[in-house]
Design goal:
This is Putative deoxycytidylate deaminase. One of its GO terms (molecular function) is zinc ion binding. The chain has about 160 residues and is α/β, with parallel strands linked by helices. It has one domain: Cytidine Deaminase, domain 2. Helix content is about 30%, strand content about 20%. It contains six helices and five strands; from the N terminus they run αββααβαβααβ. The protein has a five-stranded mixed sheet with strand order 2-1-3-4-5, with helices on both faces. Helix 4 (about 105-110) packs parallel to helix 6 (about 135-140). The two termini are about 15 Å apart. The relative contact order is 0.18.
Length: about 160
């Protein structure tokens, strides 16, 4: 049986997360439209700046007041920014990400015109929060945001 595009894109997001230089968490994202990949991203500092795992291998980069990375872009931000930089229209696209979007990323996703978001793991569970604020925001304002429940499989030959 052939894997669904949903499974292929979530597998790709999972593989992309492995490219992250973050010491604390590795997150990947894939933006698609009509079963075609529009853009990809993973969390990390802006291109050409530094790599946290090389500069601070034991502790990771300095943290902000909420305990989050103070230097890196989130995977969703990187995927959206790369698409915009290259002139890709994002209206009606679907995003696959390994971690549910935080609230700032959810606002960016909504503003970019992305219509659906599928995530593998909960940001709230990862950060010890009572709810997934980003998911709640997206669903409240008409963007379908749902946990991806299909088990990942090895798609290699």
């Amino acid at each position: 049986m052939k894997p669904s595009f949903d499974l292929i894109f979530m597998n790709l997001a999972t593989d992309l997360a492995k490219r992250s230089h973050c010491v604390k968490a590795q997150v990947g994202a894939v933006l698609t439209k009509d079963s075609r990949i529009i853009s990809i991203g993973y969390n990390g500092p802006p291109a050409g700046t530094h790599n946290c795992d090389e500069e601070w291998p034991d502790t990771g980069c300095p943290r902000d007041s909420k305990g989050s990375c103070s230097l890196a872009l989130h995977a969703e931000e990187n995927a959206i920014l790369y698409a915009m930089k290259n002139g890709a229209g994002l209206e009606g696209t679907t995003m696959y990400t390994t971690l549910s979007p935080c609230l700032p990323c959810a606002r960016l996703i909504f503003s970019a015109g992305i219509k659906e978001v599928y995530f593998r793991h909960s940001y709230a569970e990862y950060k010890g929060l009572k709810s997934d604020e980003g998911v709640d925001f997206l669903n409240r304002f008409g963007v379908k945001a749902a946990k991806f429940e299909e088990p990942l499989i090895d798609l290699s030959l």
